[in-house]
Specification:
By secondary structure, the chain is of the alpha/beta class. The chain folds into 4 domains: about 110 residues, no CATH class; about 140 residues, no CATH class; about 110 residues, no CATH class; about 120 residues, Rossmann fold (3-Layer(aba) Sandwich). Helix content is about 35%, strand content about 20%. The protein has 18 helices and 24 strands. The strands form 9 sheets. The chain has a 4-stranded antiparallel sheet, with no helix packed on it. Strands 19-24-21-20 form a 4-stranded parallel sheet. Strand 13 and strand 14 form a beta hairpin. Helix 2 crosses helix 9, helix 3 packs parallel to helix 5 and helix 4 packs across helix 7. About 20% of the residues are buried. InterPro entries: NrS-1_pol-like_helicase (IPR045455), P-loop_NTPase (IPR027417). This is NrS-1 polymerase-like helicase domain-containing protein.
Protein backbone atom coordinates (compact mmCIF):
# COMPACT_ATOMS: atom_id res chain seq x y z
CA UNK A 1 0.00 0.00 0.00
CA UNK A 2 1.13 3.54 -0.76
CA UNK A 3 1.57 5.57 2.43
CA UNK A 4 0.31 8.74 0.68
CA UNK A 5 -3.13 7.21 0.19
CA UNK A 6 -5.93 6.85 2.74
CA UNK A 7 -7.22 3.28 2.98
CA UNK A 8 -9.93 1.60 5.01
CA UNK A 9 -11.37 -1.89 5.28
CA UNK A 10 -15.09 -2.02 4.42
CA UNK A 11 -17.58 -3.51 6.87
CA UNK A 12 -18.56 -6.26 4.40
CA UNK A 13 -14.98 -6.89 3.34
CA UNK A 14 -13.14 -5.21 0.52
CA UNK A 15 -11.10 -2.02 0.43
CA UNK A 16 -12.10 1.64 0.78
CA UNK A 17 -9.92 4.21 -0.97
CA UNK A 18 -10.60 7.80 0.10
CA UNK A 19 -9.88 10.39 -2.58
CA UNK A 20 -10.43 14.01 -3.55
CA UNK A 21 -13.30 14.39 -6.03
CA UNK A 22 -11.84 17.60 -7.55
CA UNK A 23 -15.04 18.63 -9.35
CA UNK A 24 -15.51 15.17 -10.90
CA UNK A 25 -19.20 15.12 -11.95
CA UNK A 26 -20.55 11.83 -10.68
CA UNK A 27 -24.07 10.95 -11.85
CA UNK A 28 -25.31 10.47 -8.28
CA UNK A 29 -24.27 9.94 -4.68
CA UNK A 30 -24.29 6.17 -5.12
CA UNK A 31 -22.59 4.71 -8.21
CA UNK A 32 -22.65 0.90 -8.02
CA UNK A 33 -20.51 -1.45 -10.15
CA UNK A 34 -18.89 1.18 -12.33
CA UNK A 35 -16.46 -1.61 -13.17
CA UNK A 36 -16.78 -5.38 -12.76
CA UNK A 37 -13.81 -7.75 -12.77
CA UNK A 38 -13.41 -11.45 -12.08
CA UNK A 39 -12.19 -10.82 -8.54
CA UNK A 40 -13.87 -7.57 -7.44
CA UNK A 41 -16.33 -4.82 -8.33
CA UNK A 42 -15.73 -1.07 -8.06
CA UNK A 43 -18.35 1.21 -6.48
CA UNK A 44 -17.96 4.98 -6.12
CA UNK A 45 -19.74 6.85 -3.34
CA UNK A 46 -19.70 10.62 -2.87
CA UNK A 47 -21.77 13.36 -1.34
CA UNK A 48 -22.71 14.98 -4.64
CA UNK A 49 -25.91 16.32 -3.12
CA UNK A 50 -26.14 17.02 0.59
CA UNK A 51 -29.85 17.87 0.56
CA UNK A 52 -32.82 16.34 -1.17
CA UNK A 53 -33.86 18.20 -4.29
CA UNK A 54 -37.43 19.25 -4.98
CA UNK A 55 -38.21 21.34 -8.05
CA UNK A 56 -34.50 22.20 -8.49
CA UNK A 57 -34.33 23.81 -5.03
CA UNK A 58 -32.50 22.42 -2.04
CA UNK A 59 -34.73 21.43 0.83
CA UNK A 60 -33.69 21.06 4.45
CA UNK A 61 -34.06 17.28 4.23
CA UNK A 62 -30.68 15.55 4.27
CA UNK A 63 -29.96 12.65 1.94
CA UNK A 64 -28.12 9.64 3.31
CA UNK A 65 -24.36 10.17 3.27
CA UNK A 66 -22.81 7.21 1.48
CA UNK A 67 -19.27 8.16 2.54
CA UNK A 68 -18.19 6.47 5.79
CA UNK A 69 -15.04 7.65 7.56
CA UNK A 70 -12.35 5.19 8.72
CA UNK A 71 -12.60 3.78 12.26
CA UNK A 72 -16.39 4.05 12.14
CA UNK A 73 -19.00 1.60 13.44
CA UNK A 74 -22.55 1.44 12.07
CA UNK A 75 -25.63 -0.53 13.10
CA UNK A 76 -27.52 -2.56 10.53
CA UNK A 77 -30.52 -4.90 10.67
CA UNK A 78 -29.88 -8.22 8.96
CA UNK A 79 -32.18 -11.24 9.19
CA UNK A 80 -34.19 -9.41 11.87
CA UNK A 81 -31.07 -8.97 14.01
CA UNK A 82 -29.20 -5.75 14.80
CA UNK A 83 -25.49 -6.13 14.05
CA UNK A 84 -22.58 -3.73 14.38
CA UNK A 85 -20.32 -3.35 11.35
CA UNK A 86 -16.92 -1.68 11.51
CA UNK A 87 -14.91 0.25 8.94
CA UNK A 88 -11.30 -0.26 10.03
CA UNK A 89 -8.45 2.11 9.14
CA UNK A 90 -5.53 0.33 7.51
CA UNK A 91 -2.86 3.04 7.44
CA UNK A 92 -2.14 6.23 9.40
CA UNK A 93 -5.00 8.13 7.73
CA UNK A 94 -5.21 10.86 10.40
CA UNK A 95 -1.80 12.24 9.42
CA UNK A 96 -2.40 12.26 5.67
CA UNK A 97 -2.50 15.83 4.36
CA UNK A 98 -3.37 15.23 0.70
CA UNK A 99 -5.77 12.75 -0.88
CA UNK A 100 -5.17 11.38 -4.35
CA UNK A 101 -7.43 12.62 -7.12
CA UNK A 102 -10.46 10.45 -7.94
CA UNK A 103 -9.85 11.16 -11.62
CA UNK A 104 -6.31 9.75 -11.44
CA UNK A 105 -7.49 6.65 -9.59
CA UNK A 106 -10.25 5.89 -12.11
CA UNK A 107 -7.96 6.64 -15.06
CA UNK A 108 -5.62 3.88 -13.88
CA UNK A 109 -8.54 1.43 -14.20
CA UNK A 110 -9.55 3.00 -17.52
CA UNK A 111 -12.89 4.07 -15.99
CA UNK A 112 -14.65 7.26 -17.04
CA UNK A 113 -18.01 8.07 -15.43
CA UNK A 114 -17.47 11.85 -15.39
CA UNK A 115 -20.66 13.48 -16.71
CA UNK A 116 -20.18 15.92 -19.55
CA UNK A 117 -21.54 19.39 -19.04
CA UNK A 118 -24.20 18.63 -21.67
CA UNK A 119 -25.35 15.53 -19.77
CA UNK A 120 -25.27 17.39 -16.48
CA UNK A 121 -27.42 20.16 -17.97
CA UNK A 122 -29.80 17.51 -19.28
CA UNK A 123 -30.03 16.03 -15.78
CA UNK A 124 -31.06 19.44 -14.44
CA UNK A 125 -33.53 19.74 -17.31
CA UNK A 126 -35.12 16.42 -16.38
CA UNK A 127 -35.32 17.39 -12.73
CA UNK A 128 -37.18 20.55 -13.63
CA UNK A 129 -39.62 18.95 -16.06
CA UNK A 130 -40.07 15.70 -14.15
CA UNK A 131 -41.54 17.10 -10.95
CA UNK A 132 -43.59 20.12 -10.00
CA UNK A 133 -44.11 21.26 -6.40
CA UNK A 134 -47.09 23.38 -5.48
CA UNK A 135 -46.78 26.46 -3.28
CA UNK A 136 -47.97 24.51 -0.23
CA UNK A 137 -45.10 22.04 -0.68
CA UNK A 138 -47.19 19.10 -1.96
CA UNK A 139 -46.44 17.27 -5.20
CA UNK A 140 -48.71 18.29 -8.04
CA UNK A 141 -50.93 15.53 -9.40
CA UNK A 142 -50.22 14.21 -12.89
CA UNK A 143 -52.61 15.37 -15.58
CA UNK A 144 -54.63 12.73 -17.43
CA UNK A 145 -52.85 13.14 -20.77
CA UNK A 146 -49.42 12.48 -19.31
CA UNK A 147 -50.72 9.70 -17.04
CA UNK A 148 -52.11 7.80 -20.04
CA UNK A 149 -48.82 8.23 -21.89
CA UNK A 150 -47.03 6.51 -19.00
CA UNK A 151 -49.56 3.69 -18.61
CA UNK A 152 -49.42 2.85 -22.33
CA UNK A 153 -45.73 1.96 -22.12
CA UNK A 154 -45.46 0.40 -18.66
CA UNK A 155 -45.51 -3.05 -20.21
CA UNK A 156 -43.13 -5.94 -20.94
CA UNK A 157 -41.06 -5.17 -17.85
CA UNK A 158 -39.37 -7.51 -15.38
CA UNK A 159 -40.52 -6.34 -11.96
CA UNK A 160 -38.65 -7.38 -8.83
CA UNK A 161 -39.44 -7.18 -5.16
CA UNK A 162 -36.09 -5.88 -3.87
CA UNK A 163 -35.85 -2.09 -4.31
CA UNK A 164 -32.65 -1.75 -6.32
CA UNK A 165 -31.87 1.58 -8.08
CA UNK A 166 -34.20 2.11 -11.04
CA UNK A 167 -31.32 2.21 -13.53
CA UNK A 168 -30.59 -1.41 -12.53
CA UNK A 169 -34.08 -2.92 -12.25
CA UNK A 170 -37.75 -2.03 -11.75
CA UNK A 171 -39.15 -2.76 -8.30
CA UNK A 172 -42.79 -3.43 -7.43
CA UNK A 173 -42.79 -0.71 -4.77
CA UNK A 174 -41.58 1.99 -7.17
CA UNK A 175 -44.25 0.95 -9.69
CA UNK A 176 -47.03 1.37 -7.13
CA UNK A 177 -45.56 4.68 -5.94
CA UNK A 178 -45.83 5.98 -9.49
CA UNK A 179 -49.35 4.62 -10.01
CA UNK A 180 -50.68 6.26 -6.85
CA UNK A 181 -49.35 9.56 -8.11
CA UNK A 182 -52.11 9.43 -10.76
CA UNK A 183 -55.23 11.29 -9.63
CA UNK A 184 -57.56 9.86 -12.31
CA UNK A 185 -58.93 6.68 -10.74
CA UNK A 186 -59.80 4.92 -14.01
CA UNK A 187 -56.32 5.48 -15.48
CA UNK A 188 -54.76 4.38 -12.18
CA UNK A 189 -56.92 1.23 -12.13
CA UNK A 190 -55.86 0.45 -15.71
CA UNK A 191 -52.22 0.75 -14.68
CA UNK A 192 -52.69 -1.52 -11.64
CA UNK A 193 -54.40 -4.16 -13.78
CA UNK A 194 -51.53 -3.99 -16.28
CA UNK A 195 -48.91 -4.86 -13.65
CA UNK A 196 -49.63 -8.59 -13.67
CA UNK A 197 -51.28 -8.76 -17.09
CA UNK A 198 -48.47 -7.28 -19.20
CA UNK A 199 -45.36 -7.60 -17.02
CA UNK A 200 -43.28 -10.41 -15.53
CA UNK A 201 -43.13 -10.41 -11.73
CA UNK A 202 -40.45 -12.24 -9.75
CA UNK A 203 -41.63 -14.84 -7.24
CA UNK A 204 -40.96 -12.57 -4.27
CA UNK A 205 -42.65 -9.61 -5.98
CA UNK A 206 -45.76 -11.68 -6.62
CA UNK A 207 -45.71 -12.89 -3.02
CA UNK A 208 -45.44 -9.35 -1.53
CA UNK A 209 -47.82 -7.75 -4.05
CA UNK A 210 -50.36 -6.58 -1.44
CA UNK A 211 -47.75 -5.14 0.91
CA UNK A 212 -46.05 -3.24 -1.94
CA UNK A 213 -49.40 -1.80 -3.05
CA UNK A 214 -50.12 -0.59 0.49
CA UNK A 215 -46.68 1.01 0.85
CA UNK A 216 -46.89 2.64 -2.58
CA UNK A 217 -50.24 4.25 -1.75
CA UNK A 218 -48.61 5.99 1.21
CA UNK A 219 -45.68 7.29 -0.89
CA UNK A 220 -46.98 8.58 -4.25
CA UNK A 221 -44.18 9.77 -6.51
CA UNK A 222 -44.84 10.89 -10.07
CA UNK A 223 -41.24 11.11 -11.07
CA UNK A 224 -40.61 7.38 -10.75
CA UNK A 225 -42.38 6.64 -14.06
CA UNK A 226 -40.17 9.18 -15.80
CA UNK A 227 -37.08 7.38 -14.53
CA UNK A 228 -38.41 3.91 -15.38
CA UNK A 229 -39.14 4.82 -18.99
CA UNK A 230 -35.93 6.81 -19.33
CA UNK A 231 -33.88 3.69 -18.53
CA UNK A 232 -36.18 1.00 -19.98
CA UNK A 233 -37.56 2.67 -23.11
CA UNK A 234 -35.23 5.53 -23.96
CA UNK A 235 -36.57 6.11 -27.49
CA UNK A 236 -40.15 6.46 -26.22
CA UNK A 237 -38.91 8.72 -23.43
CA UNK A 238 -37.11 11.04 -25.87
CA UNK A 239 -39.89 11.18 -28.48
CA UNK A 240 -43.03 11.19 -26.32
CA UNK A 241 -42.37 11.67 -22.60
CA UNK A 242 -39.83 14.47 -22.63
CA UNK A 243 -41.80 16.77 -25.02
CA UNK A 244 -44.94 16.19 -22.93
CA UNK A 245 -43.09 16.99 -19.70
CA UNK A 246 -41.66 20.13 -21.24
CA UNK A 247 -45.08 21.20 -22.49
CA UNK A 248 -46.62 20.68 -19.03
CA UNK A 249 -43.79 22.57 -17.38
CA UNK A 250 -44.08 25.55 -19.73
CA UNK A 251 -47.86 25.70 -19.20
CA UNK A 252 -47.41 25.69 -15.43
CA UNK A 253 -44.68 28.32 -15.56
CA UNK A 254 -46.88 30.51 -17.76
CA UNK A 255 -49.78 30.15 -15.33
CA UNK A 256 -47.46 31.00 -12.44
CA UNK A 257 -46.14 34.04 -14.32
CA UNK A 258 -49.67 35.32 -14.97
CA UNK A 259 -50.60 34.81 -11.32
CA UNK A 260 -47.51 36.70 -10.15
CA UNK A 261 -48.24 39.59 -12.52
CA UNK A 262 -51.81 39.75 -11.23
CA UNK A 263 -50.92 39.68 -7.54
CA UNK A 264 -47.67 41.67 -7.32
CA UNK A 265 -48.35 45.26 -6.28
CA UNK A 266 -45.38 47.51 -7.20
CA UNK A 267 -43.74 49.57 -4.49
CA UNK A 268 -43.74 53.35 -4.70
CA UNK A 269 -40.55 55.06 -5.84
CA UNK A 270 -39.95 57.00 -2.62
CA UNK A 271 -37.19 59.62 -2.55
CA UNK A 272 -37.29 59.72 1.25
CA UNK A 273 -36.16 56.07 1.33
CA UNK A 274 -32.39 55.57 0.91
CA UNK A 275 -32.90 52.28 -0.96
CA UNK A 276 -31.10 52.28 -4.36
CA UNK A 277 -29.59 49.83 -6.84
CA UNK A 278 -26.53 49.77 -4.59
CA UNK A 279 -28.56 48.05 -1.87
CA UNK A 280 -30.01 45.54 -4.35
CA UNK A 281 -26.46 44.63 -5.38
CA UNK A 282 -25.52 44.06 -1.74
CA UNK A 283 -28.56 41.86 -1.08
CA UNK A 284 -27.91 39.84 -4.24
CA UNK A 285 -24.22 39.38 -3.38
CA UNK A 286 -25.13 38.18 0.11
CA UNK A 287 -27.70 35.69 -1.23
CA UNK A 288 -30.61 37.32 0.60
CA UNK A 289 -33.17 36.86 -2.20
CA UNK A 290 -35.28 33.69 -2.18
CA UNK A 291 -37.25 34.21 -5.41
CA UNK A 292 -37.74 36.53 -8.38
CA UNK A 293 -40.77 38.24 -6.84
CA UNK A 294 -38.64 39.73 -4.06
CA UNK A 295 -36.24 41.20 -6.61
CA UNK A 296 -39.11 42.65 -8.66
CA UNK A 297 -40.55 44.37 -5.59
CA UNK A 298 -37.18 45.94 -4.79
CA UNK A 299 -36.63 47.06 -8.40
CA UNK A 300 -40.03 48.79 -8.48
CA UNK A 301 -38.77 51.04 -5.68
CA UNK A 302 -36.07 52.51 -7.91
CA UNK A 303 -36.97 52.12 -11.62
CA UNK A 304 -39.90 53.11 -13.84
CA UNK A 305 -40.40 53.93 -17.52
CA UNK A 306 -43.01 55.42 -19.84
CA UNK A 307 -43.49 55.82 -23.59
CA UNK A 308 -41.65 58.89 -24.90
CA UNK A 309 -42.06 60.67 -28.22
CA UNK A 310 -39.48 58.53 -30.04
CA UNK A 311 -38.63 55.77 -27.54
CA UNK A 312 -39.24 54.75 -23.95
CA UNK A 313 -37.98 57.09 -21.23
CA UNK A 314 -36.41 55.36 -18.21
CA UNK A 315 -36.12 56.86 -14.73
CA UNK A 316 -34.00 55.55 -11.88
CA UNK A 317 -33.62 56.70 -8.29
CA UNK A 318 -29.98 57.33 -7.40
CA UNK A 319 -27.94 58.96 -4.66
CA UNK A 320 -26.55 62.43 -5.46
CA UNK A 321 -23.42 62.57 -3.30
CA UNK A 322 -22.72 66.31 -3.73
CA UNK A 323 -25.97 67.31 -2.04
CA UNK A 324 -26.32 64.12 0.00
CA UNK A 325 -29.82 63.43 -1.30
CA UNK A 326 -31.73 61.12 -3.65
CA UNK A 327 -32.72 62.25 -7.14
CA UNK A 328 -34.45 60.88 -10.24
CA UNK A 329 -32.20 60.50 -13.28
CA UNK A 330 -33.44 59.97 -16.84
CA UNK A 331 -31.42 57.35 -18.73
CA UNK A 332 -31.43 55.38 -21.97
CA UNK A 333 -32.69 51.81 -22.00
CA UNK A 334 -29.21 50.52 -22.80
CA UNK A 335 -27.69 52.40 -19.87
CA UNK A 336 -30.28 50.97 -17.47
CA UNK A 337 -29.67 47.46 -18.82
CA UNK A 338 -25.90 47.79 -18.33
CA UNK A 339 -26.44 48.75 -14.70
CA UNK A 340 -28.85 45.84 -14.13
CA UNK A 341 -26.51 43.36 -15.85
CA UNK A 342 -23.97 43.97 -13.09
CA UNK A 343 -26.40 42.64 -10.46
CA UNK A 344 -25.84 38.86 -10.45
CA UNK A 345 -28.58 37.00 -8.59
CA UNK A 346 -27.83 33.94 -6.48
CA UNK A 347 -30.96 32.71 -4.72
CA UNK A 348 -30.64 31.68 -1.08
CA UNK A 349 -32.01 28.13 -1.56
CA UNK A 350 -30.71 27.43 -5.04
CA UNK A 351 -29.12 24.03 -5.58
CA UNK A 352 -25.33 24.12 -5.25
CA UNK A 353 -24.63 22.50 -8.63
CA UNK A 354 -26.93 25.01 -10.33
CA UNK A 355 -24.94 27.87 -8.78
CA UNK A 356 -21.70 26.49 -10.20
CA UNK A 357 -22.82 25.53 -13.68
CA UNK A 358 -25.85 27.55 -14.72
CA UNK A 359 -25.66 30.82 -16.62
CA UNK A 360 -25.68 33.74 -14.16
CA UNK A 361 -29.10 35.28 -13.63
CA UNK A 362 -29.04 39.08 -13.58
CA UNK A 363 -31.45 41.81 -12.54
CA UNK A 364 -31.76 42.74 -16.23
CA UNK A 365 -33.37 39.38 -17.02
CA UNK A 366 -35.88 39.81 -14.19
CA UNK A 367 -36.62 43.43 -15.14
CA UNK A 368 -37.44 42.42 -18.74
CA UNK A 369 -39.48 39.42 -17.60
CA UNK A 370 -41.68 41.58 -15.34
CA UNK A 371 -41.59 44.77 -17.44
CA UNK A 372 -45.32 45.38 -16.95
CA UNK A 373 -44.65 46.15 -13.27
CA UNK A 374 -42.47 49.15 -14.14
CA UNK A 375 -44.43 50.90 -16.89
CA UNK A 376 -46.22 54.20 -16.21
CA UNK A 377 -48.68 56.23 -18.31
CA UNK A 378 -46.41 59.25 -18.18
CA UNK A 379 -44.48 61.62 -15.96
CA UNK A 380 -45.42 64.95 -14.32
CA UNK A 381 -43.83 67.12 -11.71
CA UNK A 382 -46.85 66.68 -9.41
CA UNK A 383 -49.64 64.16 -10.04
CA UNK A 384 -52.24 62.44 -7.88
CA UNK A 385 -52.75 59.74 -10.53
CA UNK A 386 -50.99 56.56 -9.29
CA UNK A 387 -50.30 55.53 -12.90
CA UNK A 388 -48.41 58.77 -13.62
CA UNK A 389 -44.93 59.13 -12.17
CA UNK A 390 -44.77 62.13 -9.82
CA UNK A 391 -41.34 63.77 -9.66
CA UNK A 392 -42.09 66.03 -6.67
CA UNK A 393 -42.15 64.16 -3.36
CA UNK A 394 -41.93 66.89 -0.76
CA UNK A 395 -39.93 69.93 0.32
CA UNK A 396 -36.73 69.83 2.30
CA UNK A 397 -38.63 70.33 5.57
CA UNK A 398 -41.90 68.93 6.83
CA UNK A 399 -44.79 71.27 7.50
CA UNK A 400 -45.71 71.65 11.17
CA UNK A 401 -49.14 70.49 12.30
CA UNK A 402 -49.95 73.91 13.83
CA UNK A 403 -48.40 77.24 12.86
CA UNK A 404 -49.17 80.71 14.27
CA UNK A 405 -49.62 82.75 11.11
CA UNK A 406 -51.44 85.76 12.61
CA UNK A 407 -48.46 88.10 12.68
CA UNK A 408 -47.33 87.07 9.20
CA UNK A 409 -50.63 86.53 7.43
CA UNK A 410 -50.87 89.98 5.80
CA UNK A 411 -47.37 89.70 4.33
CA UNK A 412 -47.93 86.11 3.21
CA UNK A 413 -51.21 87.03 1.50
CA UNK A 414 -49.48 89.91 -0.29
CA UNK A 415 -46.68 87.68 -1.54
CA UNK A 416 -49.13 85.02 -2.67
CA UNK A 417 -51.30 87.48 -4.59
CA UNK A 418 -48.74 89.80 -6.19
CA UNK A 419 -45.68 87.59 -6.59
CA UNK A 420 -46.73 83.94 -6.52
CA UNK A 421 -49.85 84.50 -8.68
CA UNK A 422 -52.10 82.79 -6.18
CA UNK A 423 -52.05 79.00 -6.45
CA UNK A 424 -50.76 79.05 -10.03
CA UNK A 425 -47.18 79.14 -11.27
CA UNK A 426 -45.95 82.69 -11.72
CA UNK A 427 -45.37 83.69 -15.36
CA UNK A 428 -42.92 86.43 -14.38
CA UNK A 429 -39.37 86.49 -13.03
CA UNK A 430 -38.36 88.36 -9.86
CA UNK A 431 -35.26 90.58 -9.91
CA UNK A 432 -33.29 91.18 -6.72
CA UNK A 433 -31.04 94.19 -7.35
CA UNK A 434 -28.89 95.96 -4.79
CA UNK A 435 -25.39 96.50 -3.54
CA UNK A 436 -23.23 93.62 -2.39
CA UNK A 437 -23.69 92.28 1.14
CA UNK A 438 -27.32 93.15 1.80
CA UNK A 439 -28.49 89.49 1.90
CA UNK A 440 -29.78 88.71 -1.61
CA UNK A 441 -28.10 85.29 -1.71
CA UNK A 442 -29.12 84.57 1.87
CA UNK A 443 -32.76 85.11 0.89
CA UNK A 444 -32.57 82.77 -2.12
CA UNK A 445 -30.57 80.17 -0.17
CA UNK A 446 -33.46 79.81 2.30
CA UNK A 447 -35.91 79.20 -0.57
CA UNK A 448 -33.48 76.76 -2.21
CA UNK A 449 -33.13 74.80 1.02
CA UNK A 450 -36.91 74.53 1.27
CA UNK A 451 -37.27 73.26 -2.30
CA UNK A 452 -34.66 70.58 -1.63
CA UNK A 453 -33.59 68.63 -4.75
CA UNK A 454 -35.90 70.57 -7.07
CA UNK A 455 -33.76 73.70 -7.45
CA UNK A 456 -30.77 75.26 -9.20
CA UNK A 457 -29.50 77.73 -6.57
CA UNK A 458 -26.59 79.30 -8.44
CA UNK A 459 -26.66 79.54 -12.25
CA UNK A 460 -23.93 81.88 -13.54
CA UNK A 461 -23.85 80.84 -17.22
CA UNK A 462 -26.93 81.50 -19.35
CA UNK A 463 -25.88 78.74 -21.77
CA UNK A 464 -27.13 76.21 -19.21
CA UNK A 465 -30.61 77.55 -19.93
CA UNK A 466 -30.36 78.59 -23.58
CA UNK A 467 -27.61 76.30 -24.94
CA UNK A 468 -27.97 73.13 -26.99
CA UNK A 469 -28.31 71.00 -23.85
CA UNK A 470 -30.73 72.27 -21.23
CA UNK A 471 -31.61 69.33 -18.98
CA UNK A 472 -30.70 71.48 -15.96
CA UNK A 473 -34.12 73.17 -16.16
CA UNK A 474 -36.13 69.91 -16.07
CA UNK A 475 -38.17 69.29 -12.90
CA UNK A 476 -36.72 72.37 -11.18
CA UNK A 477 -39.28 74.52 -9.39
CA UNK A 478 -36.82 77.22 -8.33
CA UNK A 479 -33.71 78.65 -10.03
CA UNK A 480 -31.42 81.55 -9.20
CA UNK A 481 -29.62 83.34 -12.05
CA UNK A 482 -26.72 84.91 -10.15
CA UNK A 483 -24.63 87.66 -11.78
CA UNK A 484 -24.93 86.17 -15.27
CA UNK A 485 -21.61 86.76 -17.05
CA UNK A 486 -22.79 86.19 -20.61
CA UNK A 487 -26.39 87.40 -20.55
CA UNK A 488 -26.63 89.85 -23.46
CA UNK A 489 -29.39 91.58 -25.33
CA UNK A 490 -29.52 89.10 -28.20
CA UNK A 491 -33.06 88.45 -29.27
CA UNK A 492 -32.53 84.69 -29.30
CA UNK A 493 -31.51 84.65 -25.61
CA UNK A 494 -34.42 86.83 -24.60
CA UNK A 495 -36.88 84.66 -26.55
CA UNK A 496 -35.65 81.46 -24.90
CA UNK A 497 -35.79 83.02 -21.43
CA UNK A 498 -39.30 84.31 -22.09
CA UNK A 499 -40.34 80.79 -23.06
CA UNK A 500 -38.80 79.31 -19.90
CA UNK A 501 -40.45 81.92 -17.68
CA UNK A 502 -43.94 81.82 -19.18
CA UNK A 503 -44.67 78.62 -21.14
CA UNK A 504 -46.26 75.58 -19.38
CA UNK A 505 -44.04 73.03 -21.21
CA UNK A 506 -40.43 72.93 -22.31
CA UNK A 507 -38.38 70.88 -24.77
CA UNK A 508 -35.53 69.04 -23.06
CA UNK A 509 -32.28 68.26 -24.88
CA UNK A 510 -29.93 66.01 -22.92
CA UNK A 511 -26.72 64.36 -24.07
CA UNK A 512 -27.20 60.76 -25.26
CA UNK A 513 -30.95 60.96 -24.56
CA UNK A 514 -33.92 61.30 -26.93
CA UNK A 515 -35.56 64.72 -27.00
CA UNK A 516 -38.61 64.93 -24.80
CA UNK A 517 -41.26 67.41 -23.69
CA UNK A 518 -41.45 68.06 -19.96
CA UNK A 519 -43.74 70.03 -17.69
CA UNK A 520 -42.27 73.49 -17.00
CA UNK A 521 -42.47 74.24 -13.26
CA UNK A 522 -39.60 76.73 -13.17
CA UNK A 523 -39.78 79.90 -11.04
CA UNK A 524 -36.83 82.25 -11.55
CA UNK A 525 -35.14 84.96 -9.47
CA UNK A 526 -32.41 87.15 -10.98
CA UNK A 527 -29.70 88.47 -8.63
CA UNK A 528 -27.67 91.49 -9.68
CA UNK A 529 -25.36 93.94 -7.91
CA UNK A 530 -25.16 96.42 -10.77
CA UNK A 531 -27.55 99.36 -10.92
CA UNK A 532 -28.90 98.14 -14.27
CA UNK A 533 -29.96 94.48 -14.03
Amino acid sequence: ANADKDYGQAAHGGLHIYSNRNYYRLPSNRNVKVAVTDSFDIDVFAQMNKYKIENVLETKKLVQNRVVAPSTAIRETKNNQRVILKYEAINDWENISHLESLREILDKWNIDIDMSYKDFAQQQHDRIYGLLIKDDGTIEQMNDELAQVYINKLKNLEIYNYPQPINMEVSLLSTFCGLYGISNESIRAEGINNIRQFNKLSANADKDYGQAASNGERKPNLRIFTKILKYRNKEYYELIIKPQLKKNYEVKMKEKQILINQTLVPNKNDLTDNFTLFHIQLKAANGEYENEEQIVMDLTEIIAYYAGETEDVYMIKEFYAIYGTLVIHHKLEGTIYKQLEKVNICFKNKKTDDKENSKPLTAKHIFKKYASKFVMKGCKFISEDPEIFSIFQGHGYKRLDTIEYDCLQMSIDLIKKTIAAGDERSRAAIILQGRQGIGKNGFTDVIAEQTNRYNCPNITNIDEFTGNFNSVVENKMFSVLNEMTNYDSKKSVATVMKSIISYPTIRINEKNQPRRTAENVMNIIYIRNADSP
